[in-house]
């Protein structure tokens, strides 16, 4: 065949430069509007709501706060602008729309919960930087042997136990290389180890996710809920309200058994869903052992970091009710820096400070929801809506709150979900004469049930970043996990929590 | 700085005279099918192939405030590769296995730092004595579609090829979270080929509506077909029986254009009915359905809809939107 090569100039448009520039500019503005459409939609909804007359039973301030919350929720879910920018908008809204004094708004941005989030994030980076992951991996495989099921269960248990204290994101970041190494040492061909990779990596992700509820330091949302309880119900002049101060140990009594109960189900559900190609990983384990042995014995610095962390833990358990959990977390981070175990540069680049700002602003807005009576109004309206379904009290209400939280948390980060929903569900508990503690726990714990999406829980996001999982994998296995977890939680709320005098 | 600008402009101008194909690789079978097509369409000395893998930028907002880079650095310190590198290497191996490309290749590696990412943007350029280029590019961007479109801005391309990944929903889904292919096809200023189950079967099916744009499309698609040595068929759809004659005229016009270029169409036909349904049902027998761009952009296209997009959304075979 002899076909003359088509000339390149034939393939290109002959438009003039001017026409092209005009097209570029119009394309750009269309593109910009398209990318930011949800921002404009949110602003439009806000403007319409504010120009409407205030509904009966609401003050003007409450209506403004409610509008701001709705706009913030839309922006949290659709993310047309960076999330920290939403936090800044909340601050601006409080000053310009609500007319609060700038210094008063600034004061509501910081409290013990926010300090705690800040401190635990710095601690998280410090812990990951200690590079104890290889040793942990070795401990796991030494305990479990080489059977895939047992290794996966071991990974879930150890990840979970660690994550319940140091936070799920920390452990997910530490354990991710362990999972991937076991996969790549088994086979280089990704197709042959598709299911094995899923089982191993989900064991880490879900092991961490179910553990995040175990203690207050498991995740930001727990600290946020503890802050709300204190803010909403604690009255220093009334000793009766002392029970709304939930300290570290009390939280663990409520939530830790739930985490332990969920663990076996993680492995069970994963193995039913994915059926890994290899039943035995002895080849990979032998190679892993060789890698770990190159590390040599534990060094003094390793021991110091372990002891430091144990001291932080002791501080949280025994003295956090007096000095605040945030203080202990900050103290721990400072200790790691003073001991020279972590560089400030690592902490600075490893923590997304925008998250601290985001949670600060979200909590500040949540407290405004309470102060202006907006939370009360939404709670009442919501209960009226639930009444025909019989879900306005008792068990029905629990299920409704859990379902609502699970739905919201699958769309935005779980800390933001608790910050937004917290004030409303706590007021619902008051109106419906339910225990605010049980309802609060249901919300905080359900917010961990974001197994369905990559963005739902921090551990899932981190594990997904490895590139070994598909988004559809999360859907396939996630609903089973969500269902199991919900049933376990409702059973705990029904049988176990009332025994603790909530 | 001025020197720099001139440099960039020169590169840009030089690139305009080359046939540049951007292949987006994501590790899926479809994307490697697209790569195979790329090596056949860009088989002459005047063509470059750029393999692109886009990784969404890491940010800690979703991971509870701990930057994903902490996890990535940990992976790197274990000697594990980040996702993408492996996919690009596999793509390169596939290209080099093609004997038309077997020659000496010089290697040049460059790197651009990206704030907040341990790897940044990485590029490996391979150049042979004919001046042909194969580029592997690992890019970080806020979203995958944005990364692909950014890459277009860096140097004009004649064709973007990407594998079908993720399902296409109706307009509600596209308002919510358009699939990557949908977004790229919507915004890219050049031709876009979305590959699905791409096999050399009966070649191209060119769909014309008789407009100037459609004829322009026929010309370009004809050239692509010549380069890949594939067969070409032409069809046109009439909305009702009365206008069937008009459809036949459209087909004849397209055939005339093709014959001018020295391409003999394998078959020509007209159909009556709903354009995109007819195109899709006829297209099942072909490897690639080529449709013209209706000329609507962005929002206008979104609200008014367009046949090309509906074809793209529902077709079972590869679809090329020619611009």
Task: State the main characteristics.
heterodimer; A: 502 residues; mainly alpha; 24 helices; B: 323 residues; alpha/beta; Rossmann fold; 2 domains; 12-stranded mixed sheet; 12 strands; globular
* Percentage of residues in strands of chain B: 15-25%
Fraction in helix of chain B = 40-55%
**Category from helices, strands and their pairing of chain B:** alpha/beta
Q: What is the CATH topology of the largest domain in chain B?
A: Rossmann fold
Strands ordered across the widest β-sheet of chain B: 3-4-5-2-1-6-7-12-11-8-9-10
Radius of gyration of chain B: 21 Å
Helix and strand sequence of chain B: HEHEHHEEEHEHHEEHEHEHEHHE
Outline the low-pLDDT stretches of chain B.
166-177, 297-304
What's the mean pLDDT score of chain A? 86
Number of helices of chain B: 12
| Low-confidence sequence ranges of chain A | 1-16
Number of domains of chain A: 2
Q: Give the beta-strand count of chain A.
A: 0
How would you describe this protein?
The complex is a heterodimer of chains A (502) and B (323). With 502 residues, chain A is an all-alpha fold. Chain A has 24 helices and no strands. Chain A is globular, with a radius of gyration of 25 Å. The N and C termini of chain A lie far apart (85 Å). Chain B has 323 residues and is an alpha/beta fold. Chain B has 2 domains: 194 residues, Rossmann fold (3-Layer(aba) Sandwich); 119 residues, 3-Layer(aba) Sandwich (Rossmann fold). At the A-B interface, helix 1, helix 2, helix 7, helix 10 and helix 18 of A face helix 3, helix 8 and helix 11 of B.
